[in-house]
Hints:
Shape: globular
Structural class: alpha/beta
Radius of gyration: 19 Å
Strand order of the largest sheet: 5-6-7-3-8-9
CATH class: Alpha Beta
Number of domains: 1
Mean pLDDT: 89
Distance between the termini: 25 Å
Order of helices and strands: EEEHEHEHHHEHEHEEHH
Number of strands: 9
CATH superfamily: P-loop containing nucleotide triphosphate hydrolases
Oligomer: single chain
Number of helices: 9
Amino acid sequence: MIEARGLTKQFIRTQKKGKKEEFYAVDHVSFEAKDGEILGILGPNGAGKTTLLRMLGSLMEPTDGAVMITDKNGEQITKKEDLKMRIGYLSENTKLYGRFTVREMLTIFGELYGYNKEEIEEKIQVISDLLQMDEFIENRIDKLSTGQKQRTSIARCLVHNPDIYIFDEPTLGLDIISSKAIIDFMKQERERGKTVLYSTHYMEEAEFMCDRIVMINKGKIIASGTPQELREDTNTSNLRDTFFAYIEGGAKDEL
């Protein structure tokens, strides 16, 4: 399980006249994501989604609050090396090594995680089957389509078989076929008992895929619950209308 406890990130920005102003990109956010669950993080651009995910993935230190990650026995994991082995993180800005083939890159990451040659070859085949990569796994990365590069980025996150996936806009700008491959992958990992957190702009996608949803705006949680609970709370028929209802104060219950 992964839990955010009062996660806060404060920055300082400079105004036009040189005046400095403090602001909260993430403002005392708390929630948990359990094993075998897909948790969607929804919100507009600038809502704080990426900053939140970076703190959850141990890539950014919070100004305040903490991230708690526990193993299947409920024991908290504190060592940084162990945390890295537990998490597979995909950023929308992930850079790949264009001159390598997909197989070469995955082999390098397998070696970095300490696996031997036979283990790496077995893992690559499993990942290739899972993400439908056989047709391009021997191609150089700089020759791949956008969807193929995104599947390669996700494959990189799979090499060490993490318990928790943190994906920032994994289907952004992809065609229907590539999006389906990634969505199917997330569903399969949920069935394997893995935890999946992902942010998206696509409300319709989140609506049919997520077990629970956390909606954020201006760095704060404005609603959380199952898609059905959120729709019922706002008397709306889809998540897009639900989000606007919370923004405009249309929820029946005070948040």
